[in-house]
Amino acid sequence: MVQEMYRMALHCLLQDRLSLSEEDVERLEKRCKEEDLPDQEVLGAFFTLQLSVNNSVREEHYSLPHKGLLEYFAARHIMQRLQDGSLPPSGAVRSLLQTVSQQGTFHGLRNLFFHVAGLLAREEVPNRTEAKKEVIELVAMTGLEWDGPIPLVDERKEKLYECVLRWEECLSLVEHTDYDEGFLQAIAHHVTVNPPGGTVWIKDNMLASAAALLPRTSPPTTVELWLYNESVNVENVRALSHYHCSELRLHHHYQHPGNTPASHAMLHTIRRSRLEVFVGQLSADCLTLLPECLEVLHLAVSSDEHATRLTAALSRAVSSLPNLSELIIHVPMSMVTSAAVLSPLPDTYVSLVLSGVDQNLVKEACDVAAALQPRTGYCDIGFPLARMEAAGWRRLLHLMVTMRTEKADWLQGGFMIPEESITEEEWSEFTKLTRTLWGCRVYRFTCDVCDKMFLNKVDADLCYKNHLDMCIQPLPRVPGPSQNISCRN
């Protein structure tokens, strides 16, 4: 009975339907009678009965409650056929699917092949090595499918996108097969024979898979670590230390800095001679670990003592970073006072993040911005997690006037104010004010403390890559002057 349901599930999946046909129901009822099972109870246990009225005719349809269950049942049928030896030893899965569907393509079957891979990792079948090889190939093939055009700017970005997806599919497959040694070897062989190329982009949920797989493959050009969790397994990062790391983004350390700088262990662990982007929290002494090729640096300050030492060391550090083109400093206003800032920020492309400003911290925030102000001015100043209404923002903007120096362009971009704290009318009022005072504008944004807060300044490739997550997302569009800036962590 169950095997018959599995067989029907594969047919339904390949025909893109969840509902059973009348013939399917009759076949199941017949099988129930042969096995002396109550047909209505069996059907009710596995399927949902849906009622509909068509031209005054009442109709009943049995269907599986979710496509995921249909895909799992279909994978079970494939496993059954692999185990009974009724399929050819080579190309067994393809042979079965083509027999059922009469089609040569397997569009939309990625999840089915993932289920088959997971079952193959736990159950024995004849010709298991060949079956694993075939399923890996099918996962790689269907994982690159998408519906509709990808709004990419040029061919180079399209190839970058494909490389990211290929690596992500491989890493997801490692996790889905429970780090099975046989599958690890087979996936590593597939990657070696069919190298995805490009950079391996690794997030928290892929770190363990990358640590298990990459040491078994030929080294890619670089790896990028985009880590958001507070706790990171350093041993997994150490397993990747043979690979050049071009980006190390420790978002939790940057967004929620602790009293003690927490990113130095990770920076020590990676192979950093080609590091181009660093986001995190470092002590003044650890700035010397940053290589000359660094282009983007986002740092969080966590205390008065840290602020004093870090700001004094930054000018020296930047002088040894000739390629640095973007520096963003995050200052949580609940942790740092203006008295601790004894040195201005270096003269480079600098933006300032002052988080957690409220009515009582307006003057302090302005003082911190004034103390840190580089001679060439800021690009942008952002105020995430601010808890103020319009009156507080008016006061802050007017106090900022006192920061103005002989450099008329001390603020080249604009102020970033949380969307929820001001209305559209207030935004228009503040923009007119800042245009009059400094020739810049006010932006409304909808994110926490993150490196994408200055979306109008961030390269679209980075934003796009951070939103892939195995689903297609449009490239972010730079907002117009009256539009909100929207991003997420």
CATH topology of the largest domain: the name is Leucine-rich repeat, LRR (right-handed beta-alpha superhelix)
- Proportion of β residues? 5-15%
* Count of distinct strands: 12
Low-pLDDT residue spans: 146-153, 455-489
SSE string, helices as H and strands as E: HHHEEHHHHHHEHEHEHHEEHEEHEHEHEH
Measured between the Cα atoms of the first and last residue, the distance is: 47 Å
Mean pLDDT over the full residue set: 83
What number of structural domains do the residues give? 4
- Helix count equals 18
Bin the helical content. 40-55%
| Envelope shape | elongated
Cα Rg: 29 Å
Largest sheet: 10 strands, parallel
Structural class of the secondary structure composition?
alpha/beta
Describe the 3D structure:
It is a single chain. With 489 residues, the protein is an alpha/beta fold. The chain folds into 4 domains: 1-16 and 64-130, no CATH class; 19-62, no CATH class; 146-221, no CATH class; 224-466, Leucine-rich repeat, LRR (right-handed beta-alpha superhelix). It is built from 18 helices and 12 strands. The strands form 2 sheets. Strands 3-4-5-6-7-8-9-10-11-12 form a 10-stranded parallel β-sheet. A two-stranded antiparallel sheet has the order 1-2. α17 links the parallel β11 and β12. The longest helix is centred in the middle third of the chain and has 22 residues, at 155-176. Residues 146-153 and 455-489 have low confidence and may be disordered.
